[in-house]
Amino acid sequence: MNASARPTGPFVAACSDVLGAAHVLTDPRDTAPFLTDWRRRYTGEACAVLLPADTQQVAAAVRLAREYRVAIVPQGGNTGLAGGATPDTSGAQAVVSLRRLNRIRDVDPHNNTITVEAGVVLAEIQARAEAEQRLFALSLAAEGSCMIGGNLSTNAGGTGVLRYGNTRELCLGLEVVTPQGEIWDGLRALRKDNTGYDLRDLYIGAEGTLGIITAAVMKLHPAPVARVTALAGLASPHAALDFLAMAQRHAGALLTGFELMSDFSLRLVGRHFGQMRYPFAEPHAQTVLLELSDSESEEHARTLFERLMEEAIGKGLVEDAVVAENLAQSQAFWDLREHIPLAQAAEGLNIKQDISVPISSIGRFIDETDALIAKTAPGARMVTFGHLGDGNLHYNVQAPEGVDPEQFLADYQKRINTLVYEQVHAHRGSISAEHGLGQLKVDEAMRYKSPVEVRLMQAIKAALDPENLMNPGKVVRVPGRSGEKAS
């Protein structure tokens, strides 16, 4: 009998005995916040939402799920953008929320590490690191509500990847509950450990399909003593690439942020958030938000920055620039960047893409794909922004002015998605850079990956989760198994 066909009442009762009835939610009014994804694209049903208090209770819940053949969906802050933490519509799956696993277990300033449970909110880790005069380098728009377990499960990127790497590079060790309900204690705070397969990297980015991350050892860095933040106006993405190369030559590792934003992206922010004005007197096709972080002094950082801008303006790469004079203005520059997705949402439904291509291909990708979309959907407005320094582009398409967004999506979403994915594939890129696959892109991933890669992924899934009870239907398809379909 498939997991989706089994009665779940005994499972729910057993979970109540182990977790306490107050932490097993079944009333629709209580479960509703856990059943719809952040973008409100997916809404599922669940036999229960489980709220374990610690790793041992997570393991007990997984053992019960295995005993009763109930599929489970791990969930952190429910801020994902690909439906990876949303159950299906069968009503037979259980959501395992990690929000009660919210303790910071240890801070080791000498080792530059912090050990945290999966339900700790990202902003809390940043604050605790700052209190120790350290930096936790992961930063993204949802940091006030997303949780580190979800960041690890999707291998989140954020604005500091250029200097510090994505979440995988910031993690040293993990604690994981396996599909068999065992606890793997891999909380090693080591920079070097060459003793076999790297299990840590296997679980990071797996979106809960191989096990549930319950705690992690994360890297800290010395807090910078100075930051210099600026906005630079440029004529094209090609100029931005040349400016990036110049900035890396001048600043090296001090360059910690390099964000690209199209003119329309910033205009959209100004339209819906009137207090955030367009930063330049004249329009520029592209704007770069760049930041230098210096451990020496502000004078040193500003001297570097002035040399960079003098050369960039002298060579015609940068048309205009505005430098933040204080922390408040620096934050205002970052607020412009972070409000682009909010402005898009206020403008109406849109077609979102989180893609990556080799950095050197970004200019050509934008030129070619913009032209193809203009032919396919005349008048469509391009909201293009992202982390230029690591090749991650949020390549989004807004309905033409005056066109009903819902109708635009109904008419064009499938065609535009296919067009963008084909372009990404042609440039040897990835259709998911930092949001994960979830259920949104799992079928497309199976289509664009080579048969060898798909078989390897399926073999790993089958070996670790042979009963397919860990977040089935996400990340990888395993046809013929419970809850799956052929891709």
Automatic annotation (TrEMBL):
Gene Ontology molecular functions: catalytic activity; FAD binding
Superkingdom in the source lineage: Bacteria
InterPro entries: FAD-bd_oxidored_4_C, FAD-bd_PCMH, FAD-bd_PCMH-like_sf, FAD-bd_PCMH_sub1, FAD-bd_PCMH_sub2, FAD-linked_Oxase-like_C, FAD-oxidored/transferase_4, Oxid_FAD_bind_N
This protein's UniProt keywords: FAD, Flavoprotein
Cofactor: FAD
One example of a Gene Ontology biological process annotation: respiratory electron transport chain
Residues of the FAD-binding PCMH-type domain: 42-223
Matching Pfam families: FAD-oxidase_C (PF02913), FAD_binding_4 (PF01565)
UniProt family annotation: Belongs to the FAD-binding oxidoreductase/transferase type 4 family.
Name this polypeptide is given: FAD linked oxidase domain-containing protein
Organism: Caballeronia humi
Lineage, uppermost ranks: Bacteria, Pseudomonadati, Pseudomonadota, Betaproteobacteria, Burkholderiales
